[in-house]
């Protein structure tokens, strides 16, 4: 007799489809996750770019990695918000009364974050190409960029899951996104860290976004990545493992 666990992937695909329909029906999500980062890219390239010294003539090439990370950071508030709503409305309890895998509903939200960010990042790259973005990277470099962005998305998504599952109010659920929004701004995403004051520079150079940005920038320009890629991977994998552990504990406790 087949067990419920054998249907895990089928159950997860159903939960993914459910959550993706919520994303496509939410104009607010589309505006915040895709259109706002594009608007920021247009602003920095065509309004502020001429006043920013980055050592390159093509500012959109310098800017794009940070814009992609901002789009991902913008999305996690919606993940925690939708998880909170499912908790508040008893949706998880209803799912668990059915013959489906107990973790499928949670993984549905996590995969929705991953898939929706793939779409938004692809749209951002297309707009950047129209604005003059050019890359000499080969196929393997692009795969490496995709892998790093996926790890970064999963890291932030599991953090959002902790907030969404444990929050007592909607405000508490989405508050997790606010401090994360500042990380790309206080990094090398927009300007070189060498131009920053000492304490700000020290923080910028030792937080995860800078190493991720520098790695993606080097990969897209077909330059050596050095040790930055290992620092970026260590940050992403470390956050995923810790956040996943606590998210599962909260999920098991609350549901």
From TrEMBL:
Asked whether the keyword Coiled coil is assigned, the reply is: no
What membrane topology term does the record carry? Multi-pass membrane protein
Where exactly are the transmembrane stretches of this chain? 30-52, 64-85, 106-133, 139-165, 172-191, 229-247
- Its domain of life? Bacteria
Cite the PROSITE patterns for this sequence: ABC_TM2
Localization in the cell: Cell membrane; Membrane
The main location class comes to membrane
- Where does the ABC transmembrane type-2 domain lie? 28-254
Question: What protein name does the entry list?
Answer: Transport permease protein
Family as reported in the entry's similarity comment: Belongs to the ABC-2 integral membrane protein family.
- Quote the InterPro entries the UniProt record gives: ABC2_TM, ABC2_TM_bact-type, ABC_2_transport, Nod_factor_ABC_transporter
Q: Which UniProt keywords apply?
A: Cell membrane, Membrane, Transmembrane, Transmembrane helix, Transport
Q: What is the lineage of its organism?
A: Bacteria, Pseudomonadati, Bacteroidota, Cytophagia, Cytophagales
Keyword Transport attributed: yes
Checking Pfam families in the record gives:
ABC2_membrane (PF01061)
């Amino acid at each position: 007799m087949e067990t419920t666990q054998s249907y895990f992937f089928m159950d997860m695909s159903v939960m993914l489809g459910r959550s993706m329909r919520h994303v496509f029906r939410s104009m607010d999500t589309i505006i915040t996750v895709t259109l706002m980062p594009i608007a920021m890219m247009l602003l920095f390239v065509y309004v502020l770019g001429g006043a920013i010294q980055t050592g390159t003539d093509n500012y959109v090439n310098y800017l794009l990695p940070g814009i992609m990370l901002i789009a991902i950071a913008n999305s996690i508030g919606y993940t925690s918000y939708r998880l909170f709503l499912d908790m508040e409305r008893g949706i998880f309890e209803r799912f668990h009364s059915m013959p489906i895998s107990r973790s499928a509903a949670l993984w549905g939200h996590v995969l929705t974050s991953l898939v929706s960010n793939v779409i938004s990042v692809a749209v951002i790259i297309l707009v950047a190409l129209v604005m003059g973005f050019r890359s000499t990277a080969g196929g393997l470099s692009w795969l490496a960029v995709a892998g790093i962005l996926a790890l970064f998305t999963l890291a932030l998504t599991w953090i959002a899951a902790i907030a969404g599952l444990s929050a007592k109010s909607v405000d508490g659920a989405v508050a997790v996104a606010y401090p994360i929004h500042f990380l790309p701004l206080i990094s090398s995403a927009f300007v070189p860290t060498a131009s920053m004051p000492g304490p700000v520079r020290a923080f910028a150079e030792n937080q995860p976004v800078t190493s991720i940005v520098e790695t993606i920038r080097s990969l897209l320009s077909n330059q050596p990545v050095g040790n930055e890629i290992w620092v970026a991977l260590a940050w992403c994998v470390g956050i995923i493992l810790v956040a996943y552990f606590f998210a599962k504990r909260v999920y098991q406790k609350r549901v």
